[in-house]
Amino acid sequence: MALLDRIFGRGHEPQRRDQQGADGFEPLPSRRGNAAARPDFGHAEQVPEGRFRFIALDVETACSDAASICQIGLACVQPDDQIQTFSMLINPRTRFNPFNIRLHGIGPDHVAQAPCFAEAIGVLLPLLTRHNLVQHSNFDKRAVHAACLSCGIDAPDLRWSDSVMIARRAWPELKGNGGHGLANLRRRLNLQFYHHDAGEDARAAAMVVQHAESRLGLSFEELIKPVAKKSDLPAITMKGIPTGPLAGSTLVFTGALGMSRTEAAALAVRAGMSVKAGVTRQTTHLVVGDQDLTDPAGHAQSSKHRRAEDMQAAGHPIRIIGESDFRRLVADCGTA
């Protein structure tokens, strides 16, 4: 029980919440009294138990060394989408950089009685290995691997996904317009959390995924599927159901979709739309992957996309829509 008491902070409440940041940084402590703005997650008494849809993980470090983890936070998303948040302090057994202390408010005194990383990860692994993990950028995975190496233990085989990549897919318009970091997403999505606390940042990453699921109409499992390369995408030709509400329409797909081409074509066919492989004068709709519609990731538009735009410029009534608009279109027909 002594190890668990150390890990879960029983009888040891960190005092960093009562300190004021400096040099323009406002760490978590100065906001503790704002009960209306900040949910009180407290210091968890035990690791969350049960099965979750996914778990977001975030770390804070003592210095520029990725292995210097001084706090781990988890946000466990339940099947009903409620989030259990857990955080723990870690003694990195290394120096603390003043910049990092100002950023997250954790210093050497706060972790003096905390467990080392090897002890903490040993307690967390049974939970982590059972779930898909979400990190916001690749830093957290790199930090866990570096901390394992520093402790002389093997890095665990964990299933990682990146909420930055999910956010880029859901909000491609943010590229060059504030980006997909948590600070900008907090403003854009009106997220309520406190940056640079591992538990809070993990919760923010989980909320980003939840917002993306809602925006794209995709489950977490669908969001983390590898997007097929254009060269791997099959050419599908199907005839629409004559009684469908959009009968007489002809649709073509281009770019990377969140669902498979076969699934997308089935939705179109049930709505009455015929699916063809290439853009012609009979094409009424071109469906483009949401990200490719506004952000082709440095690549030129597909030949189908360019041809459709040329046809629009010439006065041909062809609609170019993203996958999200396509989903709404067929949903309005009662076929989604």
Describe this structure in words.
By secondary structure, the protein is α/β, with parallel strands linked by helices. The protein has two domains: about 1-225, 2-Layer Sandwich (Nucleotidyltransferase, domain 5); about 230-330, Rossmann fold, CATH 3.40.50. About 35% of the residues lie in helices and about 15% in strands. It contains 13 helices and nine strands. The protein has helices spanning about 1-10, 100-105, 110, 115-130, 140-150, 165-170, 180-190, 200-215, 220-225, 260-270, 290-295, 305-315, 325-330, and strands spanning about 55-60, 70-75, 85-90, 130-135, 160, 250-255, 275, 285-290, 320. The strands form two sheets. Strands 3-2-1-4-5 form a five-stranded mixed β-sheet. Strands 7-6-8-9 form a four-stranded parallel β-sheet, with helices on both faces. The radius of gyration is 24 Å and the shape is elongated. The model is unreliable at about 1-45 (pLDDT under 50).
What is the CA-CA span between the terminal residues?
53 Å
Return the structural class: alpha/beta
Radius of gyration computed on alpha carbons: 24 Å
Stated plainly, the CATH topology of the largest domain is called Nucleotidyltransferase, domain 5
Shape: elongated
Low-confidence stretches: 1-44
Give, in order, the helices and strands: HEEEHHHEHEHHHHEHEEHHEH
What is the CATH C level class of the largest domain, in words?
Answer: Alpha Beta
Mean pLDDT figure: 82
- Please count the helical segments: 13
Instruction: Label the CATH architecture of the largest domain.
Output: 2-Layer Sandwich
* CATH homologous superfamily grouping of the largest domain: Ribonuclease H-like superfamily/Ribonuclease H
